[in-house]
Write a structure and sequence with these properties.
CATH superfamily of the largest domain: P-loop containing nucleotide triphosphate hydrolases
Distance between the termini: 38 Å
Shape: globular
CATH topology of the largest domain: Rossmann fold
Structural class: alpha/beta
Number of strands: 27
């Protein structure tokens, strides 16, 4: 088997990442050598590869689904928004510029060449490459310089499957509208539809699928049922609720529930750090944007952010700074991760990200932070509570610790902890030890479940995605597209054709 496929979507969060990961796992289980690819990703949720490259976290998850190591070629262009107007551009795993939308547009022809080179490289090393689009292929205002959807499909001769989220409503209109807005050349690549997040009896959907096929001359390639509770590594904040929608089942010995409030920062990044807490039996994770939502928390988490100084100002505007100070003064546990750790410092000197200069931090940890031009990208390994801990670092801020107790290359002072390490809570022994200490400080009779394995839970989710494709998609048709490429003779459907 040899070939490639592009999975596009009618909208953001339609299910492109899920379908791409599912196809990767389904093929990997058949012994096919397969790799994921996303030419351009816009996300604050990223990961560091073994050789120190930063890529979208979704592509790292898809690589895990394919049972291979993630690498920069799988996501050659990553955009990390710092505001509504500007983003950091990461190319082949390294930051190269901070640009506005119009400036970035001028870079796209060169970035398309890089993306095509990476795709060709992957296709030379793997039997199959499953590509994921970005946003919608029908963003006609951006088509002339598109590098992730139909621009990539045409340049690389890829067949395209479009995924639509029926749970949002209007799936048939969005699918037909997507096709109708494409040029004749682009339409030639669009080969079929996948309906995602369906609830109910698929027989009730069949008349609509039949009519869609008649109108578009493209077949339905699957109806995927809603799978709640997957908690997969999302690209953006659209799926944040999925991390915290599970009622806790109680600790290992039926003791009290441990309540965790996570501050939902405006430019929240790497929110997958919370995933391991949310899947721990007996831990209730909630998002917080108001001081009163911290009042009964046994642990408050300040997560990562792409805009430390701006989000710190937001924190103060809402009175969350006083609430955090009050909780810490009373001995209640507070954990800061990466940008959240930087906020807990005495001072922040930022001439790089916000260019705000010297800014007072929350003053809850004996740390002074200075932003460096070079970004730290690393996969550190250390020890805490007698447990081995592996994590990853993505930050410009460099923390100079002036006291307290060393903790994961960060510091602990009293009931406040801070670290630059993402992913630390995914280490089972460390997570349980940390939760035991939190419970003691909070006066809770909480006992972590001794056999909870986060890696096994993630693997089980990826298998569920493979099952989703195997059981509910037209796998024979998908194989024909992968091996046969762009189908011949697909009719052009002009706007308003019905």
């Amino acid at each position: 088997m040899n070939g490639a496929l592009l999975v596009a979507g009618t909208t953001s969060d339609a299910g492109k990442s899920v379908v791409t990961a599912g196809v990767c796992r389904w093929l990997a289980r058949q012994g096919v050598s397969v790799a994921p690819f996303k030419a351009q990703n816009m996300s604050l949720n990223s990961f560091v590869t073994a050789d120190g490259a930063e890529i979208g976290r979704a592509q790292a998850m898809q690589a895990a689904a394919a049972r291979i190591e993630p690498e920069a070629a799988m996501n050659p262009v990553l955009l990390k928004p710092g505001s509504d107007q500007r983003s950091q551009v990461v190319v082949l795993g390294q930051p190269v510029a901070e640009v506005g939308a119009l400036d970035y547009r001028e870079r796209k022809p060169a970035l398309l060449r890089i993306a095509l080179d990476c795709l060709a490289d992957l296709r030379g090393r793997y039997d199959v490459v499953v590509c994921e689009g970005a946003g919608s292929p029908a963003e006609i205002n951006l088509r002339d310089r598109d590098i992730a959807n139909m621009g990539l499909a045409v340049a690389a001769a890829l067949p395209v499957v479009v995924v639509g989220d029926i749970d949002r409503g209007g799936v048939f209109a969005s699918m037909y509208g997507t096709l109708a807005l494409l040029s004749a050349e682009d339409q030639r690549h669009l080969a079929g539809w996948i309906v995602n997040k369906f609830r109910g009896d698929v027989r009730l959907l069949k008349p609509g699928l039949d009519m869609l096929e008649q109108l578009t001359h493209r077949p339905s390639l699957g109806v995927l049922p809603m799978l709640p509770g997957l908690w997969l590594d999302a690209e953006d904040s659209l799926d944040l609720a999925g991390l915290v929608d599970r009622a806790p089942s109680g600790g290992a010995s039926g003791e009290e529930v441990l309540r965790v409030s996570v501050v939902r920062l405006p430019r929240l990044s790497n929110f997958t750090d919370i995933d391991a807490l949310a899947q721990e039996p007996g831990v209730l994770v909630r998002w917080a944007t108001r001081p009163e939502e911290l009042a009964d928390a046994d642990l408050v988490v300040l997560p990562g952010t792409r805009a430390t100084v701006a989000d710190l100002a937001w924190l103060r505007e809402r009175g969350l700074d006083a609430a955090l100070a009050g909780r810490a003064a009373e001995g209640w546990p507070v954990l800061g991760v990466c940008g959240g750790y930087q906020m807990l410092a005495l001072t922040i000197l930022d001439e790089v990200e916000s260019r705000a200069g010297a800014v007072p931090g929350l003053g809850l940890l004996p740390v002074r932070v200075e932003f460096a031009t070079a970004k730290t990208l690393a996969r550190p390994v250390g020890e805490a509570y007698g447990e081995t801990v592996a994590g990853y670092e993505i930050h410009h801020g460099v923390a100079a610790v002036e006291g307290g107790e060393p903790w994961l290359d960060g510091v602990r002072q009293g009931s406040v902890w801070g670290t630059t390490w993402h992913g630390a809570l995914e280490n089972d022994g460390f997570r349980r030890a940390f939760l035991r200490e939190v419970a003691t400080a909070a006066g809770r009779r909480f006992v972590p479940a001794p056999d909870t394995c986060f890696a096994a839970a993630r693997e089980e989710r990826l298998d569920r995605l493979g099952d989703l494709i195997e059981e509910h998609a037209d796998t024979a048709a998908l194989l024909r597209l992968i091996e046969g490429g762009v189908p011949d003779g697909l009719p052009f459907v002009p706007p308003g054709a019905p």
